[in-house]
Amino acid sequence: MDEKKLQFIVPTDKGKERLDVFLAAQLPSVTRAKLKRLVDDAKILVNGVPTKAGHAVRPGEVIDVIFPAPEPSELQAEDIPLDILYEDDYLLVINKSAGMVVHPAYGNMSGTLVNALLAHCQSLSDVGGPRRPGLVHRLDKDTSGLLVVAKDDITHVSLAKQLAVHKIDREYRAIVWGHLKNKTGRIEAPIGRHAKDRTRMRIDNQGKFAVTNYHVVDEAQFTSYVKLNLETGRTHQIRVHMMSLGHPVFSDSTYGGRGKQLTGMNPARTKFVNRLFEKFTRHMLHARILSFQHPVINEIVIFESSIPPDMHTLWHILKSSAV
Q1: Catalytic residue at 140?
Q2: Which residues of 92-119 are buried (b: 16+ CB within 10 A; e: fewer)?
Q3: Phi and psi dihedrals of 44, rounded to 5?
Q4: Interior CA angle at 157 toward 213 and 144, to 5°?
Q5: Predicted confidence (pLDDT) per residue in 203-233, tens digit
Q6: Would the pTM count as exceeding 0.90?
Q7: 20, 126, 140, 153: which is the annotated catalytic residue?
Q8: Domains, in order of start, for the chain
């Protein structure tokens, strides 16, 4: 595969700004470290000339970003079935099942969505790095539902920019513990990585800005069925934000949605809930609607995924029981 080039023209109204800062905004899926390597390797040109990361961009300057041909992937293509809601020459929309890891990582290099995509697609964007080809955004392993995958870098950059400025609409559904006092609300709380457990996130005043909007759709005896819309896309955002309200996602062992909820329950309800935990082992969160402007046809496209059977069954049990 040949190297790829993206070109940007600095807008006429752009004020004084460093080159690396300008490009970070244009290429939100590309890490600062990768941008630095591109600068160091003379792969970023301003008006055709290699320059430094600290160059102050000026209106009208033409900036070329050259992505070298990727190294041969260490990842293996695997013939894993995919639930594809939409596909064209530029992107795919996948309905991911709960339990599928999105991309390979240390100790988990196979059986992922990326391994399946490598077998299905002739090409995927490499903006996100060699272990995340095509991935514009992610879902947690046990979160089911929709995500978009880019087949080329230009499509990827366009989608990533929409994501960065909150132009991609993402609606989730969740079953959470308890009844929320305010049936509609906005959670604005920064999220950062947990200081002691690096696999977890937490509310952190020094963390990244994060906003989740919610609306209670229905209530059962000790749970609620909630619609959630993301304005930002932080790791574990919905799960952390709902825990911060005291209403963690049902069966979420990482963020207080399992055993901690049994405190104070009478024996009959404790037995009933423990049976539910045995049957419904994953956190009850589903990415239901995904909407964005298609980068090529320039039309708004909307995709919807039905609530999966496990969530549907659990909610029916919760609504019909009177323990």
Answers
A1: yes
A2: bbbbbebebbbbbeeeebeebbbbbbbe
A3: -120, 120
A4: 45
A5: 999 999 999 999 999 999 899 999 999 999 8
A6: no
A7: 140
A8: 4-67 (3.10.290.10), 72-165 (3.30.2350.10), 170-287+312-320 (3.30.2350.10)
